[in-house]
Amino acid sequence: ADYAKQAGVQFVVSGVIRDLSLESPDDYASDYWSKLKRLAKQTNHSRRFVVDVFVHDGFSGAIVWQKQLSTQGDWNKDANDKVGFETAEFLSDAYGQQVSLLVKNMATQVSEQIHCQPFMTRISRVEGKTIHFSSGARSGIRPGDTLALYRTSNFYDSNRLSGVDLENVKTALTVSQVHPNFSSGSISVDPGRLNIQEDDLLIAW
Q1: Nearest to 43 by CA among 83, 80, 74
Q2: Which residues pair with 117 in a beta bridge?
Q3: CB-facing half-sphere around the CA of 181: CA atoms within 13 A
Q4: Is pLDDT of 37 > 80?
Q5: Which end of the chain is more exposed for a tag (fewer CB within 10 A), N or C?
Q6: What is the C-alpha to C-alpha distance for residues 205 and 200, in angstroms, rounded to an integer?
Q7: CA separation for the pair 177, 141 (Å, rounded)
Q8: Closest by alpha carbon to 56, among 96, 121, 10, 115?
């Protein structure tokens, strides 16, 4: 959540590569028998790629989606070759091509999951009935858009894990000024009466 606030983003996407191993690493050994097998093309060159991908909500830190993806393909490079990820040499192998397809598929699935989530943005400043927030034209904000106002508060459950509670104050903001990375709008009541402060949220469901 702290990183999302610093970066000004609604979601944080992360991943952990779980497996890059060869199915038959002994086939890459330097002994005579292994070399003979390679010459006779009787080796198993299949290599695995397994990755766990996570989408975290940037406001609460909660995981909103996670999935493990995997693929495999023939890795025909020498065991001592140093091949950079997604370089031309990497992509020349069947393994590299399969990994590249998986990464593209992963990006598509992440995008689909994010589009299913409501749009949220942080309030950055309150000036009278004008509220400034940290999203703009690059996030699809347009003059005339309406966003619901939510007050935020931290809570702790029985395991002492913190979360963020959202309270709908049943007031809508109408966007008036839009810039690439920030915008502002107005509400019909005094924000002080609603106790609206910096880091409270505007949401479009």
Answers
A1: 74
A2: none
A3: 3
A4: no
A5: C
A6: 16
A7: 10
A8: 10
